[in-house]
Amino acid sequence: MTPQDFFAKALPEARSSGHIFPEYACCEVALETGWGGSSLTTIANNLFGQKQGAVTAGLPTVQIQTREFLNGQWVVVPATWPKFASWSDSFKARMQLLRTLAPKYPNYAAALAATTGEDFIRSVSKTWSTDPQRADKVLQIYNAHLKGAAAAAAATTTP
After folding, report:
1. What is the pLDDT of residues 99-122, one digit of tens each?
2. Percent of the chain, pLDDT > 70?
3. What's the rounded mean pLDDT across residues 46-74?
4. Taking the CB of the first residue and of the last residue of the chain, which one, N or C, has fewer CB atoms within 10 A?
5. 112 vs 27, 69, 158, CA distance in Å?
6. What is the reported pLDDT for 53?
7. Phi-psi region of 18 (alpha: psi -120 to 50; beta: other; left: phi over 0)
8. Domain map of the chain by residue range?
9. Separation of alpha carbons 47 and 150, rounded Å
10. Which one, of 129, 96, 126, 94, lies nearest residue 110 by Cα?
11. How far apart are CA 86 and CA 44, in angstroms?
């Protein structure tokens, strides 16, 4: 899927799900899914690499290996992932998970309180992923594909 095709599909789903920073969430998903091509995405509509837990209890699951950055190196480990009915459901479940875990994880609370998409990404990435470069990678995608479009959209809606 091209970046244009990816954003054409992902942005409406992120917006309709009520994500607080939908454009940035789509950039997270672009990174997490390899532009929508990962097996976790195609098999389970799981966009964020959200593992099975209390928020997704009762959903069907799939077992797929994942790469984690542990003890200074990348390793492959097995994981159980929930299957979502749609991309929108995956965006909704991710926000629900952040809200549920915010009292326990200060980085999620900071992400939910963020006033900019960049602050959201920097905060959420500290706990969401084991990749120490995740926030920078997401922001690179945003800057390369959406920053100019977001500025143009804001300029057309400003009186």
Report:
1. 999 999 999 999 999 999 999 999
2. 92
3. 88
4. C
5. 17, 25, 25
6. 85
7. left
8. 3-48+85-146
9. 22
10. 126
11. 9
